[in-house]
Amino acid sequence: MQLPRTLGELKSSEYNEARVRRSSVKDEMRRNLIGKLEHNEAVFPGIVGYEDSVIPQIVNAILSRHNFILLGLRGQAKSRILRELANLLDAAMPTIEGCEINDNPYQPLCKSCRLLSEERGEQTPITFVPRSNRYVEKLATPDVTIADLIGDLDPIKAARGGHLLSDELTIHYGLLPRANRGIFAINELPDLASKVQVGLFNIMQEGDVQIKGYPIRLPLDVMLVFSANPEDYTARGKIITPLKDRIGSEIITHYPASVEEGIEITKQEAWTARDNQSVLVPEFIRRAVEQVAFEARDDQRVDRRSGVSQRLPISVIENVVSNAERRRLLTRETRAVPRISDIYAALPSITGKLELEYEGEQKGAAAVARDLVRVAVGKVFEAYCGHLDCTEIIAWFNDGGNLRVGDADSAALCLKGFRTIDGLLAAATASHLAEASQADVLVAACELILEGLHAQKKISRSEERGYTAVKPEPRSYGYESFSRSRKIN
């Protein structure tokens, strides 16, 4: 369909005056949201774990035509949700061509559009703005000024046009007026200086702005949405009380409630499909990686006020696959299958994402990360292999057996070593984690069992040299250790 190009064509099209003039952006979002709900369409496709908590509250806020704020720790999809709001706008919106603030063709606000409309009448040129251009986002930082958000007087415009500085034609519009008839999002709202937050009052309640003290009325049509960390109310900055009072709804986000939800999010976001290479990530490896994040969120050595972002398991699984990919390239194997040893190789993607308390800082980020991996693998071992009888494996180590494998060793070489451990391969196949014909997956299952037994303190392990069986110390209860580093002959 040919879109209208002039105001006259617009009046005779489906974008009639009643629809365009009387429908605010909040009404538009409400109308499109109702349509999605009536057709059972996903309101926020790709957002996992919020179906019964956050999303219904956002839906209620939009149906109520509220400005709202998302409060939550880092890595809880706040920015992603705000950007998804643009999908509730119409596919295209008519505006006067060349207008900086997306003026309504039937009721222009800025002086230049009013003059153009008076001069050209029904020949006023019209253009259509796609929904993607109607979303404006600003990261709040302490150096953001009122001029950045609202606008300022431009002396160059005044000089070139021969206008007085008080003339509206000299205004250089800020981000907020440029978001007119759209969505304006501010991330990390408490970082915005208090005097700048005050500048949002009028636009939220009275619908107008002032630039450089001139009482220029711009009744902007904007949906205002914000995000913030709850701790920021008393930490880096503060959302001033009058501004909080003007925000219609305050919605609390959260981390995945279950490991299954976390796995689904990580699968969706992580880059594990490497070009045309064959990669197989066993489910128990995914679960172990996700469990690391859950353990970190409950660990007293990790700062809970800062939180543990969902980016942690996403980065870890990518690093795990990369280590498996490196091994595949070195050993010339046909596919990359991650193992437990690859999770330990991914420690650099864990340590940088943990804000530690005093106890954790004393121990060190790397040591805390290793502990988290060990505990996580222990819980996954219990879930998958808790029913297994591993006494034969433990007895093999207690009788002086020892084994050393490297994370760069091929599956065939690892299996050669694992076959020497009484009962290990039988336990791996009995756990249904791998079939005997899948050598690469079988190696990953064997490593899970060994690391799980270590987590339960039924065997010990040398952190320096990996899995290595050692003679028990006096009063060591007969436990010995295993290591990953010795090469198998």
Biggest sheet layout: 5 strands, parallel
Beta-strand proportion:
5-15%
Gap between N and C termini, in Å?
Answer: 74 Å
The counted number of beta strands is 11
What is the count of helical runs? 23
> What structural category characterises the helix and strand content?
alpha/beta
Oligomer: single chain
**CATH homology superfamily name of the largest domain:** P-loop containing nucleotide triphosphate hydrolases
Write up what this structure looks like:
- Helix content is 43%, strand content 9%.
- With 489 residues, it is an alpha/beta fold.
- The chain has a five-stranded parallel sheet with strand order 4-7-8-1-9.
- α19 (365-385) packs across α23.
- Residues 474-487 have low confidence and may be disordered.
Map the helices and strands.
Blueprint: H1 7-11, H2 17-22, H3 25-38, H4 54-63, E1 68-71, H5 78-84, E2 92-96, H6 111-120, E3 126-130, E4 135-139, H7 146-149, E5 151-153, H8 155-161, E6 171-173, H9 175-178, E7 182-187, H10 194-198, H11 201-205, E8 222-228, H12 241-246, E9 249-252, H13 259-269, H14 283-298, H15 311-331, H16 340-345, H17 348-351, H18 358-363, H19 365-385, H20 391-398, H21 411-418, H22 424-430, H23 439-455, E10 460-461, E11 481-482
Parallel strand pairs: 1-8, 1-9, 4-7, 7-8, 10-11
Antiparallel strand pairs: 2-3, 5-6
